[in-house]
């Protein structure tokens, strides 16, 4: 039955959302017309209820019928029994209520079973991915400081002077790998410690949700209880003042108690525009270590490790060819290896330099596909069912202004055009109008769920 529900869901939302919000769900049981699904956290459950309730209703109608009902079971982690997540039956959130605009009702029992302090029970899992370890992280000059500082922190969390530990570097150079490895190491060697890994985006979303649901104090309490906080990609906190205030609060609290804080960023702290000075100054209390692009030998070693892990043998000259050709980014390097293996098994050809050349050629072409401002304008106009001429027009109608701002936002994000020439494309608007549009959409993404979804959807068209 759940499979049938998923089919409806899959057709209705972008794949990225599906992957995030529906793939982690496990069907548990079906009794009569009530299906129970297990979700990973309270937060997850609330998100589904806030964003997908109508869709779920539609899916239930299709899979079970109008009187189908959905029950959630939320994985609750109690803190002292961290390794045995308890499953708690919480909610019957969706009941059919024909004729109502919002066709569901919250079960009143939810409120008796779930006191306002849900987050207190530390229900989130650690979000650690056991595939990232120090063992499978190849050391080279490019990453030696970051790796060894990370390892020191993993062995003595909160005790070294590397608190906070801040690791920065370009995308695909192993930031997430290292900090996850630290988390896993601590998790394995200090099982009594509560380790939490969170991306800054997720942190921000949780914060916004907590604001909305009046659960801010549970949110901060929750974070203040961890022993090791890993927060990935802090550059995303840029410009998000309220989120930063709360993070500042949490940071101070944890630091004072000698808890370990680990952060990553795609640039050095001094270049983190849009982050409050008081936060930046605290980042400097500990150690900042950078990751550089790997040198040739490190790249070869990374490829070999990867092949060994996959149990695949490739000639050294192919390995070297790939290592020579892809020099900036480990993720790319892995991508090439994976498509090489896929190609070889599809075409039943041997992996030789010839095949490697072809594979690389395809990949490079795909990457350089630029998004032009014309594509952006056409796509956005299409999406909102207006014309490109409308986007360029002087119209101040709401139905035009908002799409126009969205298009400007994407032009700024996805092209290298200077603001002035973006202005020219949009019917000769001046550069302050362009800045204003970008700012207002950036803010709306933070505060307005429907704007966030629109932008997310459009993004998926551009990919
Ligand atoms: P970032 O977070 O900096 O964008 P990731 O940590 O996601 O980068 O790394 C991208 C990919 O490259 C991951 O699959 C990671 O395991 C791999 N990787 C990066 N550096 C190394 C390394 N030194 N040794 C082995 N694998 C690495
Ligand atoms: Mg990362």
TrEMBL record:
Q: Where is this region: Domain I, interacts with DnaA modulators?
A: 1-90
The protein's UniProt keywords, in alphabetical order, are: ATP-binding, Cytoplasm, DNA replication, DNA-binding, Lipid-binding, Nucleotide-binding
**Places the protein is found:** Cytoplasm
Query: Which positions are annotated as binding ATP?
Result: 172, 174-176
Please list the residue ranges annotated as the Chromosomal replication initiator DnaA C-terminal domain.
Answer: 372-441
Superkingdom is Bacteria
Q: Where is the AAA+ ATPase domain?
A: 161-291
Q: Which residue intervals make up region (Domain IV, binds dsDNA)?
A: 345-463
Record CDD domains: AAA, Bac_DnaA_C
Q: What is this protein called?
A: Chromosomal replication initiator protein DnaA
Q: Which organism is it from?
A: Ravibacter arvi
């Amino acid at each position: 039955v759940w499979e049938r529900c998923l089919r409806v869901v899959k057709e209705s939302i972008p794949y990225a959302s599906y992957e995030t919000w529906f793939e982690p769900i496990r069907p548990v049981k079906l009794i009569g017309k009530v299906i129970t699904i297990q979700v990973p956290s309270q937060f997850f459950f609330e998100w589904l209820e806030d964003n997908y309730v109508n869709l779920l209703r539609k899916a239930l109608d299709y899979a079970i019928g109008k009187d189908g009902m959905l029950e959630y079971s939320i994985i609750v982690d109690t803190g002292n029994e961290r390794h045995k997540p308890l499953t708690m039956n919480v909610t019957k959130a969706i009941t059919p209520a024909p004729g109502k605009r919002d066709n569901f009702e919250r079960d009143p029992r939810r409120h008796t079973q779930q006191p306002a302090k849900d987050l207190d029970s530390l229900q989130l899992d650690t979000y650690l991915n056991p595939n990232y370890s120090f063992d499978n992280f190849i050391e080279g000059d490019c990453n030696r400081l970051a790796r060894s500082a990370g390892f020191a922190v993993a062995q003595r969390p909160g005790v070294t002077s590397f608190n906070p530990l801040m690791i920065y570097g370009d995308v695909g150079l192993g930031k997430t790998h290292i900090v996850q490895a630290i988390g896993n190491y601590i998790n394995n060697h200090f099982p009594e410690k509560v380790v939490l890994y969170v991306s800054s985006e997720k942190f921000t979303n949780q914060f916004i949700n907590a604001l909305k649901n009046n659960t801010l104090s549970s949110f901060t309490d929750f974070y203040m209880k961890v022993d090791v906080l890993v927060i990935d990609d802090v550059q995303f906190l840029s410009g998000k003042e309220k989120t930063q205030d709360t993070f500042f609060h949490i940071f101070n609290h944890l630091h004072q108690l000698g808890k370990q804080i680990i952060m990553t960023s795609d640039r050095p702290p001094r270049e983190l525009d849009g982050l409050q000075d008081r936060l930046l100054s605290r980042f400097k209390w500990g150690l900042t270590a950078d990751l550089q692009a790997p040198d040739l030998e490190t790249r070869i070693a990374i490829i070999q490790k990867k092949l060994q892990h996959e149990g695949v043998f490739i000639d050294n000259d192919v390995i070297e060819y790939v290592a020579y050709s892809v020099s900036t980014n480990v993720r790319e390097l892995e991508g090439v290896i994976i498509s090489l293996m896929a190609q070889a098994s599809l075409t039943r050809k041997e992996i030789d330099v010839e095949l490697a050349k072809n594979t690389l050629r395809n990949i490079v072409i795909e990457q350089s596909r630029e998004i032009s401002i014309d594509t952006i304008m056409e796509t956005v106009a299409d999406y909102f069912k207006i014309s490109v001429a409308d986007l360029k027009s002087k119209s101040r109608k709401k139905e035009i202004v908002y799409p126009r701002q969205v298009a400007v936002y994407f032009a700024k994000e996805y092209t290298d055009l200077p603001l002035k020439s973006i202005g020219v494309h949009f019917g000769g608007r001046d550069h302050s109008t362009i800045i204003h549009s970008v700012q207002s959409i950036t803010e709306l993404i933070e505060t307005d769920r429907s704007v966030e979804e629109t932008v997310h959807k459009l993004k998926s068209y551009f990919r």
